[in-house]
TrEMBL record:
The name this protein goes by in its record: Bacitracin ABC transporter ATP-binding protein
ABC transporter domain boundaries: 6-234
Domain of life: Bacteria
Record has Membrane as a keyword: no
Species annotation: Listeria floridensis FSL S10-1187
GO MF: ATP binding
Database matches in PANTHER family: ABC TRANSPORTER, ATP-BINDING PROTEIN
Length: 305
């Protein structure tokens, strides 16, 4: 049976008569990267703040590593590492001294070896003795990760963690998260960036106007949504007849090149049918997965109804 590191059951938050989030329920499994995806203002940060009790939820239950946060907050929260806004540091201290200061405040005993193990894990050895004021934004994000991981939590919570990072920093961050998950750490990550959620998560939930509208595995979504392929052949007229026989819609044609939307199961069938008709396949390449279109459909374009 899969271990559940985080469980939310019907979590709601009201401010006055306005309901910010409504009956949110989902689970995060051990070693899973779970994404909260939604437009800005959809309620993602409210959900995260409710989990760690930075705000008081109106209704519902949250369990972390099987512990109800309302019944035993101290025991529940010791299993959590989090970056919920920009990580804050003592800028005129080194990264290492910042981590040592944080370790002194921890409820767990944290050795110098544990600190250095985390530093290596986030690939910050080369700069850990330098002052934080000299760090780039990407380096500060990695130091923030080290701070969140220093007590070896079961669950890492990240709210819009790639804001402001350049493409290289985003790639390094993704690689770190995947490595953490492979080592057994569960990760809950919120983002409004479709590409980030698609590249980094195992499953995602769509939050729109305070409601959870959809939960799906990334692999299932790609399978269902399909993708666009670029096809180049030796005999375009004969290929057109073959593609029409397979009931495939050609979205664009340019000379001997075709663009069409299909699924994984159909691609081998296309190749076999063309070869059987003595048509040479010069190129067959996937060029786009339509996650963006699916997201916009499920969120009504991200606009309020």
């Amino acid at each position: 049976m899969t271990e559940k590191v985080l469980q939310l059951e019907n979590v709601s938050k009201k401010i006055g008569q306005k309901e910010i989030i409504h009956n949110i329920s989902f689970e995060v499994e051990k070693g899973e990267v779970f994404g909260l995806l939604g437009p800005n203002g959809a309620g993602k940060t409210t959900i995260i703040r409710s989990i760690v009790k930075l705000i008081k939820k109106t209704n519902g239950d949250v369990h972390i590593s099987g512990i109800n946060v309302d019944d035993n907050f101290k025991d529940a929260i010791k299993h959590v590492g989090a970056i919920i806004e920009n990580p804050e540091f003592y800028m005129y201290m080194s990264g290492l001294n910042n981590l040592k200061q944080f370790a002194r405040m921890s409820r767990k005993e944290i050795s110098d070896k544990q600190i250095m193990d985390v530093v290596k894990q986030v690939k910050l050895e080369h700069a850990i003795t330098s002052k934080v004021k000299t760090y780039s934004l990407g380096m500060r994000q990695r130091l923030g990760l080290a701070q969140a991981l220093i007590h070896q939590p079961d669950l890492l919570i990240l709210d819009e963690p790639t804001n402001g990072l350049d493409p290289q920093g985003m790639r390094e961050f993704r690689e770190l998260i995947r490595e953490l998950a492979q080592r057994g750490t569960s990760v809950l990550i919120s983002s409004h960036l479709l590409s980030e959620i698609q590249q980094i998560t195992d499953r995602f939930a769509i939050i729109n106007q305070g409601k959870l509208t959809h939960i799906e595995r990334i692999t299932d979504l790609e399978q269902e949504a399909g993708f666009t392929i670029q096809l180049e052949v030796s005999d375009p007229e004969a290929a057109k007849l073959v593609l029409e026989t397979l009931a495939l819609e050609i979205t664009n044609r340019n000379g001997n090149q075709f663009t069409l939307h299909t699924t994984n199961e159909v691609v081998p069938e296309i190749a076999r049918a063309l070869v059987k008709a003595n048509i040479d396949v010069l190129e067959l390449a996937k060029i786009h997965v339509s996650l963006e279109d699916r997201f916009l459909t499920l969120t009504n374009g991200g606009e309020k109804a």
